């Protein structure tokens, strides 16, 4: 009775008060003294924690208890030892951590974290900004413990992760731990960027957030077995999840067709791709994330089976535990590019030392720059003595090489510094210097060079440069997929294919490893079967409590049947050793053992009420289950380790072959993905192209222990590396600076860098713009001068100004645009761009001369859709990837052989160039917001892509009045105005009548005033025939300056008419074809007559034949008639003779 009252008090009033206190925003000290007064002396507190341990607290009271406990542990003004001891009890901590309530669990992680930090809790424990550990079950002080894929609790946690601001690298106090802090923070920042995207996708999947569900959703899934691959090709293990029903697309397909669907059909091969991310959801809550292991045979089963691999002990064991109790399991595929993060994160975890850390982390102004261990003096010597020396004989290159002074300095820096930064403004030939450096190192040292580029496209180009400069193909190997066909032979898979011959000992090792693996696998399978089987039996329970709860075990002990007579229970059941525990569980008494001393002594146990009794049993059951899951996880972990050892063993041969290569080329993700293989080949020199576009984490994970030299080639004035989480960017200004490349960071720190100065791309009007805005020392190489003007326009640089408003595309999110969830479009600009491009095509420019650029994916997709009717835009790899991720790219195989105009976002066109750039700036709004177009780097890239013609279309007012970036755009537009480049429309000029100029303000103006690309005058020039005039409106005379006059080649299609040679018919012909020598109608007439004659002849022949037959027939008839007549006559005669005979005997005599 008393106990009940107490429980009521704890669950009610006490919790009310404490909850209020914890929630109230009173000062720390006041709260502190109030709470301390409540718990000390501990009369109330002892009741409270005992009730928690016994499970009599309701959900809210449990929450309050966990919060008070965690509060007490964090007190800095008092000794917390008592509370630490209390919290360490499994009956407290385990219960909190395994609670059903997320809030309670979160307190548990914090408590566990506090307990793990020895002694007094840190004072800034409450500042979550930069203190790692304790937020959820995947938050640790040691970043290497953090599982790369998040746990379910991490995904539901709203707490900000622990991240350092970039300034910690400048803290002189932090020098001692700087390398460790750096690796730690690099990992955390990059992982947070991944989490940002992943969280968004899972929120959409769980319908917490609006958005397009991009992955597949499968309901009613069931875990049926353990997967480990076919016997001869074992893989890491996974769970086999059977779908609740068949995939609708497979309806009606036969077994073979089902398999074929996944193997060959493009829809099937896209479904549930290998290594794609998926989420297991149980009764609406996330159980865990993992990856899909694609097994087509299993997918083709009916119902299909999906193999799901989970990593991370915590996630896995939680998910397995819940598998048992969850009623409805859902499987959701998540379309998040985890594959781009995972290898880099894993590589960071493995890094224990940071090569070149002297330069990367500790360089200060005034430090001397160290030399690499090997200096190519054969080149640097002569070059220092005579910078204008001809390097052709020294480098044995196929073509003559003379360098300008900035190229000489760059080459010397690259060869003489352990770490060198070479800045290459647009068009200055960055990769040429890279190729020269590689060639020098290849010729005069025996070092291995790892070449890393950001895109496959750039990598291919660089490798081709290397081959072009005379490095033998056999010395080069290329990691990663999507090589151009011409470089297919460099692929690392060719090495793999060559295979390896293994010695007998090696085979013995492999066999032993295999045996080991299969042993682990069978343990894993046993554990899984146990997990799937029903509730633990009384025997299992008894065995469990023997050590766990000996008091209870003792109370349930059945006196040894050997000693006594065999007891027989009610209904004649044999009393065995589980008799008493079964009695107790059913709420009964000990029956015939009631008076046994050990039962009597355990009065407390035998008098427990039914509720408490059930709670106790439940506790044992979940303990047992947890044990099974632990065994399973352990067996799985050990099995995976065996598999990893095996694959490493198989990879050894590849490493041997890799060691024979001198140049290893890969993309940044490739470098991380194949990090182990590459590391084994121990490259000495790391050469990074496009280093300004690459995340620092990607560069440092490409370093291996043997790397003793690093050459970074890039440009920190162009676009920064791409990241997903805007909050972490330099632009956001919160100091995390995730997208600041190593290149930029070192340059900003004052690390010496050399800059290539001579640009070979832009005509002077264009380069003048970036010289004024960004590169004051940029020089124009001779070939950029005296180029032809763009035909048909009034200026080579044009800004088409307008004020038509933009519209929004809600389907696409442009994360780079300040984390925006929508993208922008501008329909007016789309129409104008289309007409401008059409006009340029009329001037003779082809799709290989023009590119359309725009900052926004939304505008890109709008342009693409509109252009589709006119031309077939080719999107570059990255853009089509982005669009298909946004779910907008539906029809890619339109086979129309039309002009294809290249179309790209600015960000994805970095590193490329075109004769003419047409840029749609898109933004136009009264609030003057220009989003990420405020970035000087983006404008710089946009301006510097064009060789000969640069055309912008946009609302200048929006850009100039923008709060952020307004100054930049005003500077830029001032330059444009000074040059006379700003127009109220598109300024055309008739090439034939140069005085006829017009500014096209509306899209319709083009049809009205330049329908054929000239002016509105009739062309009137004589065509090739020299007789007839051209019927078009005025148009350009040549498709290019050195091309013949169009009229000299255009066929005259004027229609002519006249009488035919016979003079009977009127004939018509196109002028170019000449007068036909024969008259068609005459020919037809002749034909007709011939046909007629033939017909007549045939008729005549037929008639004659019929006549002949008829006559023959008549003759036959006549003959027949004649013979019949004759016979008749004879008959008559005979009759008459007979008559005469009767009349005269003489006659009768005559007859005889
Ligand atoms: Zn004209
Ligand atoms: Zn003609
Ligand atoms: Zn003409
Ligand atoms: Zn005729």
TrEMBL record:
One GO process term, biological-process aspect: regulatory ncRNA-mediated heterochromatin formation
Which parts of this chain are annotated as the region Disordered? 805-825, 1132-1152
Residues of the DNA2/NAM7 helicase helicase domain = 403-724
In this chain the DNA2/NAM7 helicase-like C-terminal domain maps to: 738-956
Q: Which SUPFAM superfamilies match?
A: P-loop containing nucleoside triphosphate hydrolases
What are the protein's GO molecular function terms?
helicase activity
This protein's source sits in the domain of life called Eukaryota
Alphabetical GO CC annotations of the entry are: nuclear RNA-directed RNA polymerase complex
Q: Which InterPro entries match?
A: DNA2/NAM7-like, DNA2/NAM7-like_C, DNA2/NAM7_AAA_11, P-loop_NTPase, SF1_C_Upf1
What spans are recorded as compositionally biased (Basic and acidic residues)? 805-814, 1132-1142
Query: Which segments does the entry list as coiled coil?
Result: none
Its recorded name reads RNA helicase
Give the organism the record lists. Pisolithus microcarpus 441
Organism taxonomic ancestry:
Eukaryota, Fungi, Dikarya, Basidiomycota, Agaricomycotina
């Amino acid at each position: 009775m008393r106990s009940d009252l107490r429980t009521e008090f704890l669950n009610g009033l006490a919790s009310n008060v404490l909850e209020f206190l914890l929630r109230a925003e009173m000062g720390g000290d006041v709260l502190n003294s109030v709470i301390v007064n409540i718990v000390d002396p501990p009369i109330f507190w002892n009741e409270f924690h005992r009730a928690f341990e016994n499970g009599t607290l309701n959900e809210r009271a449990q929450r309050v208890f966990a919060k008070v406990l965690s509060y007490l542990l964090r007190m800095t003004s008092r000794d917390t030892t008592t509370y630490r001891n209390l919290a360490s009890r499994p009956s407290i901590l385990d219960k909190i951590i395994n609670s059903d309530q997320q809030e309670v669990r979160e307190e548990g992680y914090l408590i566990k974290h506090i307990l793990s930090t020895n002694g007094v809790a840190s004072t800034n424990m409450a500042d979550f900004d930069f203190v790692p550990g304790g937020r959820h079950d995947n938050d640790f002080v040691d970043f290497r413990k953090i599982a790369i894929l998040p746990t379910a609790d991490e995904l539901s946690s709203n707490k900000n992760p622990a991240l350092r601001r970039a300034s910690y690298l400048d803290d002189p106090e932090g020098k001692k731990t700087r390398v460790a802090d750096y690796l730690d923070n690099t990992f955390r920042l990059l992982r947070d960027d991944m989490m940002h995207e992943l969280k968004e996708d899972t929120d959409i999947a769980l319908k917490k957030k609006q958005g397009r569900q991009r992955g597949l959703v499968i309901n009613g899934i069931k875990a049926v077995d353990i997967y480990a691959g076919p016997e001869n090709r074992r893989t890491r293990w996974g769970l086999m999840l059977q779908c609740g029903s068949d995939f609708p697309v497979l309806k009606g397909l036969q077994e073979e067709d089902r398999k074929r669907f996944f193997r060959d059909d493009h829809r099937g091969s896209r479904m549930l791709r290998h290594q794609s991310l998926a989420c297991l959801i149980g009764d609406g809550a996330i159980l865990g994330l993992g990856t899909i292991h694609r097994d087509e045979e299993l997918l083709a089963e009916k119902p299909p089976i999906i193999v799901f691999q989970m990593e991370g002990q915590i996630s896995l064991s939680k998910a397995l535990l819940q598998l048992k109790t969850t009623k409805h399991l859902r499987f959701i595929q998540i379309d998040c590019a985890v594959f781009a993060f995972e290898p880099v994160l894993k590589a960071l975890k493995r890094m224990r030392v940071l090569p070149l850390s002297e330069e990367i982390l500790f360089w200060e102004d005034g430090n001397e720059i160290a030399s690499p261990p090997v200096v190519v003096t054969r080149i640097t010597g002569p070059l220092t003595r005579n910078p204008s020396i001809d390097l052709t004989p020294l480098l044995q290159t196929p073509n003559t090489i003379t360098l300008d002074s900035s190229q000489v300095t760059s080459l010397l820096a690259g060869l003489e510094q352990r770490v060198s930064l070479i800045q290459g403004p647009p068009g200055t030939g960055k990769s040429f210097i890279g190729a020269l450096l590689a060639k020098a190192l290849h010729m005069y040292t025996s070092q291995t060079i790892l070449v890393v580029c950001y895109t496959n496209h750039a990598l291919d180009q660089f490798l081709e440069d290397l081959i072009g400069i005379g490095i033998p193909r056999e010395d080069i190997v290329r990691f990663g997929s999507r090589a151009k066909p011409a470089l297919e032979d460099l692929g690392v898979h060719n090495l793999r294919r060559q295979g390896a011959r293994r010695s007998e000992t090696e085979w013995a090792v492999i066999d032993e490893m295999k045996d080991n693996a299969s042993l682990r696998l069978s343990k894993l399978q046993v554990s899984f079967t146990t997990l799937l089987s029903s509730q633990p039996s009384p025997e299992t329970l008894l065995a469990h409590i023997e050590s766990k709860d000996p008091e209870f075990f003792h109370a349930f002990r059945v006196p040894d049947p050997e000693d006594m007579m065999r007891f027989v229970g009610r209904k004649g059941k044999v009393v065995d050793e589980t008799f008493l525990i079964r009695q107790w569980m059913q709420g009964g008494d000990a029956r015939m053992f009631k008076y046994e001393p050990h039962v009597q002594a355990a009065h407390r146990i035998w008098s427990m009420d039914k509720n408490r009794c059930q709670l106790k049993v439940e506790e044992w059951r979940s303990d047992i289950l947890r044990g099974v899951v632990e065994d399973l996880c352990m067996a799985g972990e050990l099995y995976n380790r065996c598999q990893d050892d095996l694959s490493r063993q198989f990879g050894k041969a590849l490493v041997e072959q890799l060691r024979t290569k001198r140049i290893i080329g890969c993309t940044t993700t490739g470098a991380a993905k194949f990090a182990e293989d590459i590391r084994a080949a121990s490259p000495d020199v790391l050469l990074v192209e496009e280093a300004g576009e690459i995340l620092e984490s990607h560069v440092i994970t490409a370093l291996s222990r043997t790397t003793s030299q690093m050459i970074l080639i890039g440009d920190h004035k162009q676009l920064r590396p791409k990241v997903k989480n805007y909050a972490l960017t330099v632009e956001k200004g919160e100091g995390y600076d995730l997208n600041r490349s190593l290149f930029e960071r070192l340059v900003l720190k004052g690390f010496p860098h050399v800059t290539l100065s001579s640009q070979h791309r832009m005509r002077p009007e264009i380069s003048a713009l970036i010289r004024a805005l960004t590169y004051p020392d940029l020089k124009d190489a001779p070939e950029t001068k005296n180029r032809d003007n763009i035909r048909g326009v009034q200026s080579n640089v044009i800004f088409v100004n307008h004020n038509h408003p933009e519209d929004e595309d809600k389907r696409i999110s442009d994360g780079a645009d300040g984390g925006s969830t929508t993208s922008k479009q501008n329909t007016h600009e789309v129409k104008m761009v289309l007409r401008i491009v059409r006009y340029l095509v009329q001037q003779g420019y082809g799709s290989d001369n023009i590119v359309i650029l725009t900052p926004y994916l939304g505008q890109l997709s709008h342009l693409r859709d509109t252009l589709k009717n006119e031309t077939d835009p080719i999107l570059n790899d990255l853009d089509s990837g982005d669009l298909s991720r946004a779910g907008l790219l539906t029809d890619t195989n339109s086979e129309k052989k039309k002009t294809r105009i290249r179309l790209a976002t600015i960000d994805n066109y970095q590193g490329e160039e075109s004769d003419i750039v047409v840029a749609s700036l898109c933004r136009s709004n009264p609030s003057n917001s220009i989003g990420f177009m405020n970035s000087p780097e983006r404008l710089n890239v946009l301006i510097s892509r064009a060789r000969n013609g640069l055309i912008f279309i946009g609302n200048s007012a929006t850009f100039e009045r923008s709060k952020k970036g307004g100054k930049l755009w005003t500077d830029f537009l001032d330059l444009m105005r000074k040059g006379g480049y700003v127009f109220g429309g598109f300024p055309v000029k008739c090439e034939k009548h140069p005085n006829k100029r017009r500014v096209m303000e509306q899209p319709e103006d083009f049809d009205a005033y330049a329908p054929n690309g000239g002016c509105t005058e009739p062309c009137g020039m004589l065509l090739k025939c020299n007789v007839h005039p051209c019927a078009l409106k005025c148009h350009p005379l040549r498709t290019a300056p050195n091309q013949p006059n169009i009229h000299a080649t255009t066929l005259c299609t004027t229609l002519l008419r006249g009488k035919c040679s016979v003079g009977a018919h009127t004939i018509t012909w196109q002028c170019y074809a000449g007068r036909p020598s024969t008259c068609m109608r005459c020919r037809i007439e002749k034909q007709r007559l011939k046909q007629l004659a033939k017909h007549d002849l045939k008729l005549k022949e037929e008639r004659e034949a019929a006549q002949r037959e008829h006559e023959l027939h008549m003759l036959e008839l006549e003959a027949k008639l004649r013979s019949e007549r004759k016979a008749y006559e004879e008959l008559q005669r005979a009759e008459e003779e007979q008559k005469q005979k009767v009349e005269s005997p003489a006659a009768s005599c005559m007859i005889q």
